[in-house]
Amino acid sequence: MKKSLLLFVAMLGISMLSFGQLDTVIGFTFPVQTGIDSLNANYGDTLNLGYDIRFESESAGTQDSITLTNGVTDYAATANSWENGADDKYFSIKFKTGYYTNLVLYAKMRCGGTNPGPKYFKVQYRISSSGTWTDVCTDTVTVANDWTTGVIDGWNLPSETWNASQSVYVRFLSITNETPAGATVDSLGIVKIDDIFVVGLNNTAIGENSLMNTRVFPNPANDVLNIENNESVSVLYIFSTDGRVVSQISNPGQSIDISNLAAGHYMLRMVAGDNAVKTQSLIVE
């Protein structure tokens, strides 16, 4: 399980219950190395969990392959073929922000040791696939052969990305053909990215939230969870700590059977018909 401060901030966001709550919009920690969903977001709004990370070339209009190699804790999205990639090649993610504001970005990047990729990157965003790429800020990301140099530690995304009716795209764009050692990046040059999170303020938690009186108990629980004022809940999700949906129940009743869940920590998320969201931690004994 991820134990970095970055993940702590993101997990805190999806467990807060106060109005105007901070929430994880999308997050990638790459807990598994293979499988059809291994490059997909494993944290965040349910609308964003199916989105993946990509490695692309703007001039060629193509995607290249991403593998999963050793990361901060588990695995990291890894790409080579960064040669001649300045202002052209990039990692990208996309996500929905329909009811989120005050968006903040976190990520960690690293160069390969024996085969280093480019040293400098910048972060850009656009609204919809046909939008114009725009710098998030004037800062650049300096990447080295460690996980502590190339850290994006809470960059504010512009207000244009808030409450967007179309998908928001964020990319991590190479802006040099030079390695950290000053050599020219070749086709074997490697860059990794891990612990990518976008967090924001969940507007559905402000004012008269339709789930404000809904309560789940007991916690810790054993075989059964009770839901008080369950009428507003359209879907209930239970997530494992690695971001997998282990249970999904539509229109849950006043009690649900959780006897199939192994003992441990989980995240519970309820979604109402008006898209209000309420999340909390859950302990199963």
Low-confidence stretches: 1-20
The name of the CATH superfamily of the largest domain reads Galactose-binding domain-like
Using the alpha-carbon principal axes, give the shape. elongated
For the largest beta-sheet, the strand count, sense and barrel status come to:
7 strands, antiparallel
| Count of DSSP-assigned helices | 1
| CATH fold name of the largest domain | Jelly Rolls
Strand content: 35-45%
- The ordered H/E elements are HEEEEEEEEEEEEEEEEEEEEE
Task: Provide an overview of this structure.
The chain is elongated, with a radius of gyration of 20 Å. It folds into 2 domains: 200 residues, Jelly Rolls; 76 residues, Macroglobulin (MG2) domain (Immunoglobulin-like), CATH 2.60.40.1930. The protein has 1 helix and 21 strands. The strands form 4 sheets. Strands 1, 2, 5, 6, 8, 12 and 14 form a 7-stranded antiparallel β-sheet that branches. Strands 3, 4, 7, 9, 10, 11 and 13 form a 7-stranded antiparallel β-sheet that branches. Strands 18-17-20-21 form a 4-stranded antiparallel β-sheet, with no helix packed on it. The longest helix is centred in the first third of the chain and has 11 residues. It is mainly beta and 285 residues long. The protein starts with a helix and ends with a strand. This is Secretion system C-terminal sorting domain-containing protein. Pfam families: Por_Secre_tail (PF18962). InterPro entries: Secre_tail (IPR026444). It comes from bioreactor metagenome.
List the keywords.
285 residues, mainly beta, Jelly Rolls, Immunoglobulin-like, 2 domains, seven-stranded antiparallel sheet, elongated, Secretion system C-terminal sorting domain-containing protein
